[in-house]
Write a structure and sequence with these properties.
The chain is α+β, with helices and mostly antiparallel strands. Among the domains are: 150 residues, Winged helix-like DNA-binding domain superfamily/Winged helix DNA-binding domain (Arc Repressor Mutant, subunit A, Orthogonal Bundle); 85 residues, no CATH class. It contains 16 helices and 11 strands. It has a 4-stranded antiparallel beta sheet. Strands 1-3-2 form a 3-stranded antiparallel beta sheet. Strands 4-5 form a two-stranded antiparallel sheet.
Length: 349
């Protein structure tokens, strides 16, 4: 297996070639979880994997609770299927809460204080659902708690990790919260071993070929737990060692017939194709890393050609603007017009 093989298989597993999935929920469930730090770009991450979909269709899936935006893996926003949110939270929340508590020390919040706020937040959203963060802060103030923006952010993140709240319906351009139980009632639990197996299967099915370090980065799990997850599904995986790294992927992968048509894609900021790995050198040359990823961890929208990142792009009101790392001939630039047109139709349908 070489770099081109890795890119080809990943494009397929990331649903960036042909596949049979039909709905936003299907896509998110297949991916396990999809980073959703920038909401418009996160919707496009789902939409581009469903040719013919629109921004409104993806937002409808969010509003109706098919897919949920919450903090669930690393301490940042992700999309997750309503069918998966509870068992993934039970597996990953303890690690994220430890990180969050370290953040909270700087403003004097401890676990006891955060837990004291949970019944108040639940009471507020039971009485009046789909409130913005600011509106929840105003209601907390009437209960005798004057919270600044930073503390309120931590309270709501804690409430997400405790399975109390999740995203509510989008109101204009504003995000809201509702009770998780209202949107996705809990119907079953998994043991830790079962959850490790299921999460590992989702990751290596959708992201493979990938290494154990990649899985640890993506999931936020301890290395020991990540290895247990891989061990539990090893009979369904193939491994290939390149240099010092061992890559894992499904042993039943069925690639589509070879297509000589170049794959030219406009992927969003924070797309799983890039952010889902600890080591990104298979798809992004080291000299261009800082062009795509800032020192503070901000990921730009990317242009990929046959799986390799060759530039970035920006959204304009009526079109997209493309920035290639190296000057490209007009015929190469033209390869991106169809996908740019797909993005325009997705946004304006």
């Amino acid at each position: 297996m070489n770099t081109n093989d890795i890119r080809t298989i990943r494009l397929h597993n990331h649903l960036l070639t042909t596949h049979k999935l039909k709905t936003p929920k299907d896509v998110v469930s297949w991916m396990g979880a999809m980073q959703a730090q920038t909401y418009p770009m996160a919707k496009w991450a789902v939409g581009l994997r469903l040719p013919g979909s629109t921004d409104g269709m993806i937002e409808q899936a969010v509003n109706e609770g098919d897919i949920i935006r919450t903090h669930i893996l690393r301490p940042t926003w992700h999309f997750v299927s309503s069918d998966d949110i509870h068992w993934i939270l039970e597996l990953t929340a303890p690690r994220i809460k430890t990180i969050l508590l370290n953040y909270n020390k700087s403003i004097g919040d401890d676990e006891a204080l955060l837990n004291k706020m949970l019944p108040l937040v639940e009471k507020i959203l039971t009485k009046e659902s789909h409130l913005t963060r600011q509106e929840i802060g105003e209601r907390l103030k009437t209960e005798g708690w004057d919270t600044n923006n930073r503390r309120l952010n931590h309270i709501m993140s804690w409430a997400e990790l405790e399975g109390v709240v999740c995203n509510g319906k989008v109101r204009g351009s504003k995000q809201t919260y509702c009770l998780l139980q209202e949107k996705a009632p809990k119907t079953y639990s998994l043991t830790k071993e079962e959850a490790l197996e299921r999460l590992a299967r989702k990751y290596f099915s959708s992201h493979g070929p990938a290494t154990v370090k990649d899985f640890v980065w993506w999931s936020g799990l301890l290395m020991s737990d990540a290895r247990k997850g891989i061990e539990s599904i090893k009979h369904d995986l193939i491994s290939e060692t390149i240099g010092a790294e061992t890559y894992w992927f499904r042993n039943d992968i069925q690639l589509p017939p070879e297509d000589t048509t170049p794959s030219a894609l406009l992927l969003p900021a924070f797309d799983e194709y890039l952010i889902g790995y600890r080591d990104r050198l298979d798809i992004l040359k080291e000299e261009y890393t800082r062009t795509v990823i800032t020192k503070t961890g901000i990921f730009s929208p990317i242009l990929t050609l046959n799986g390799e990142i060759i530039g970035t792009w920006k959204n304009k009101k009526t079109d997209t603007e493309h920035f290639f790392f190296q000057k490209k001939e007009k015929d190469v630039q033209a390869l991106f017009k169809p996908h740019a047109g797909m993005y325009k139709a997705y946004r304006h349908a």
